[in-house]
Amino acid sequence: MIQVGDKIPATTLMEYSEVEGNGCSIGPNPVETQAASAGKTIAVFGLPGAFTPTCSAKHVPGYVEAFDELKAAGVDEVWCLSVNDAFVMGAWARDQKTGEKVRMLADGSADFAKATGLTLDLTGKGMGLRSNRYSMLVRDGVVESLNIEAPGKFEVSDAATLLAQAKAL
Question: Which of these is catalytic: 8, 55, 80, 137?
Fold first, then answer.
């Protein structure tokens, strides 16, 4: 399992773009994790699924609301990772009104989740292999803080916890 001090894995996430620009076409665009995090401080949070109750009611809204404070604490970008396809993540971004605040990144085949060891098997609930709920502060591709939730919990991966850690670093 990934630990504080480790580099994030070199995987490709997908991001849905509704507007062409900055070298991105409309539709799904690849995001190479190591290149996209180079030279930046990223607040990353992972969750089991788009449009799921806790994720939609608490997790994503918390990061949208805390965005300005996270920026003031030195965070360059906020990434939301979920084992969904880019089209679902794009629809969820519209629903959650993430705008330019939270990048909704699809880990469609769970490559990032598997490479970090942060998987959650929800096969028994008809959801297959998913991402565990967690948050991490990543600076220049290296994990500086890591908060992993116990199954069914939402206590340490919230925006307030990661904001306090960003302020302390």
Answer: 55
